[in-house]
């Protein structure tokens, strides 16, 4: 049986929506490079947010 890893030993990223760090998960193993959000809630919030309008001047 393989030894368990500590969460601190796993790679981490910063969530694009909430700016909190999140650690690698086994379900993200195939597409870790494409993962941007820590949860479905952040993904939904991040994709539905409208960009800020450019200031006129």
Structure commentary:
The chain is α+β, with helices and mostly antiparallel strands. It has a domain at 9-47. 16% of the residues lie in helices and 11% in strands. The protein has 1 helix and 2 strands, in the order E-E-H. The chain has one helix at 40-48, and strands at 12-14, 21-23. The chain has a two-stranded antiparallel sheet with strand order 1-2. A hairpin with a 6-residue loop joins strand 1 and strand 2.
List keywords for this structure.
alpha+beta
Helices and strands in order:
Elements: E1 12-14, E2 21-23, H1 40-48
Antiparallel strand pairs: 1-2
The computed structural class is alpha+beta
Low-confidence stretches: none
SSE arrangement, N to C = EEH
- Number of strand elements: 2
Average pLDDT metric: 81
Tally of helical segments = 1
> Roughly how much helix do the residues carry, as a percent range?
10-25%
Chain oligomer state: single chain
Radius of gyration: 16 Å
* Biggest sheet architecture: 2 strands, antiparallel
For the termini, the CA-CA separation is: 65 Å
Brief summary of the model shown:
This protein is an alpha+beta fold and 57 residues long. The protein contains one helix and two strands.
């Amino acid at each position: 049986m393989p030894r368990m890893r500590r969460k601190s030993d796993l790679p981490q990223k910063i969530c694009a929506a909430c700016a909190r760090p999140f650690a690698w998960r086994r379900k993200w193993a195939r597409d870790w490079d494409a993962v941007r959000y820590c949860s479905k809630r952040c993904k939904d919030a991040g994709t539905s947010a409208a960009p800020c309008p450019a200031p006129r001047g």
